[in-house]
Design brief:
heterodimer, A: about 260 residues, mainly alpha, two-stranded antiparallel sheet, two-stranded antiparallel ribbon, 12 helices, about 60% helix, B: about 200 residues, alpha+beta, 5-stranded antiparallel β-sheet, 6 helices, 5 strands, globular
């Protein structure tokens, strides 16, 4: 598979809707998305982030990708991915996933000891499954509601519950205790890995802001529920009401 | 002579078996629709290097049109705005959206490096809706979960939604399209879709 198809699948793996709802107020139709009441502010922040990304981050990352050979880039990605394992193991435990915690601990141990500090993902060769857990997911499992959608400066899509989640995760991530060049390398690596997703959004979306919000919220739900949300998402509320116009649709041509 | 109780029991047993058989038959048909489509996708991917965009588009066109309910999908993604559109606008939207759908497949499924699809499970959600859970197996990466929702149209089963790793294409597009129509109007939506088609074809 070439870049395009891989790009599409990788996007789905990196970013992750709740549906738009409209309500009427004082006789005037006001569009309010229950998940995103701060849409105007969020759109401004999205535009700001997009500008920073276009004029600062993207050129720097292009340079980073040019300087670093692919093999080394994979090694750097593996290294930082391995450093996220302690956070995952801790959150496995907090969510009561003992067995998964064991697997993730094994993964961390193998990659650290046999994979030269995590540069080589030996555990994947041994078919040890990779998991991603964070404190936002833990709070969700504990029943804390997500809260409203937010676009944070430089950090992108988020929600109220994500903020304390990020703070706790930061304390648990070894990379945050490393010297600044390592932290900087981590930022470059994270942005580099997000390149395909960001390109995909620009290429496929008719409204990139809504696309980002919708996919982020769905993806997080998918992660939190371990895929159990799919059956809820299958039948979009209100869709059944739309199944009463079969005759009208039959009369319309695809025209191709 | 068979007692009345046994006759009733036999009747219900036969009836329930027929119901189960009918359901199995329907799920099998729906599963075959998905597998047939995926097989055509793989076919096009395998010829990726030999085919240009237009050729991939033409090859995928009948497969997409016969396996997807494109008119229904278009209807759903504009939600309540559908009722505000004229017949001509509805027609134009269906045509544009159908072209975009085929163009997306032709653009993204353009090469092959050992991928395959596998059907994990099939579930009848209602008499007119079936869910087919599949995986796209990537040789050097984690499998991608691809779930299909099919709706019965006449005697056929047609795909109306694809959920990739938890992200519903229908819900995603519905959010986007409704937002664009409400914010900028129908014509802008058509312009945006046309621009995407143009971009995919390059």
């Amino acid at each position: 598979m070439r870049v395009n198809s891989r790009l599409a699948f990788r996007f789905i793996g990196v970013v992750g809707i709740l549906l738009l709802t409209a309500c009427a107020s004082s006789g005037e139709i006001v569009e309010v998305n229950e998940q995103d009441p701060h849409e105007d502010l969020n759109r401004s922040m999205y535009a700001f982030n997009d500008g920073v990304d276009t004029y600062v981050a993207s050129p720097l990352v292009t340079g980073y990708q040019w300087v670093l050979p692919d093999l080394l880039e994979t090694g750097v990605t593996n290294f930082f991915s391995n450093l996220k394992e302690p956070k995952t193991i801790l959150n496995d435990g907090l969510q009561g996933k003992e067995e998964q915690a064991g697997i993730d601990f094994e993964r961390f141990l193998i990659n650290t000891l046999l994979g030269f500090g995590g540069l080589i993902d030996v555990a994947s060769y041994a078919e040890i499954e990779h998991h991603e857990e964070d404190f936002d997911q833990t709070l969700a499992v504990w029943g804390v509601p997500r809260g409203e959608y937010l676009v944070l400066p430089m950090l992108g899509p988020s929600a109220y519950r994500t903020i304390p989640g990020e703070v706790v995760d930061a304390f648990c991530s070894p990379v945050n205790y490393a010297v600044w060049p390592i932290q900087l390398l981590g930022i470059f690596n994270a942005r580099s890995n997000a390149s395909q997703s960001l390109n995909f959004i620009n290429e496929a979306a008719v409204d990139p802001y809504v696309f980002m919000r919708a996919s982020y919220l769905q993806w997080r739900d998918y992660q939190i529920t371990e895929g159990a949300n799919i059956s809820d998402d299958l039948l979009i509320p209100g869709v059944d009401e739309m199944f009463d116009d079969e005759e009208e649709l039959e009369a319309l041509e695809i025209g191709l | 002579m068979m007692s009345l109780t046994k006759m009733i029991a036999a009747f219900f047993l036969l009836f329930s078996n027929q119901l189960v058989a009918a359901e199995v038959g329907e799920t099998e048909v729906a599963s075959q629709v998905v597998q047939g489509f995926q097989s055509e996708l793989l076919n096009v991917m395998q010829q990726g290097d030999k085919l240009n965009f237009e050729q991939r588009f033409e090859q995928l066109k009948p497969a997409v049109i016969t396996t997807h309910d494109l008119a229904k999908i278009t209807r759903i993604i504009v939600s309540k705005e559908w009722k505000n559109l004229t017949k001509e606008q509805k027609q134009e939207l269906i045509q544009k959206f159908s072209t975009l759908s085929i163009a997306s497949y032709a653009h993204y499924f353009d090469g092959f490096s050992g991928q395959s699809f596998k059907v994990e499970s099939v579930k009848q959600l209602s008499p007119v809706q079936i869910y087919v859970h599949t995986f796209l197996v990537l040789p050097d990466d984690k499998d991608v979960s691809m779930d299909y929702l099919l709706k019965k149209r006449g005697e056929d089963w047609r795909i109306i939604n694809i959920i990739t790793n938890g992200v519903s294409d229908l819900a995603l597009k519905r959010s986007e399209y409704v937002a664009v129509i409400r914010k900028s109007g129908f014509d802008v939506l058509i312009t945006e879709i046309s621009a995407k088609i143009e971009k995919f074809s390059q």
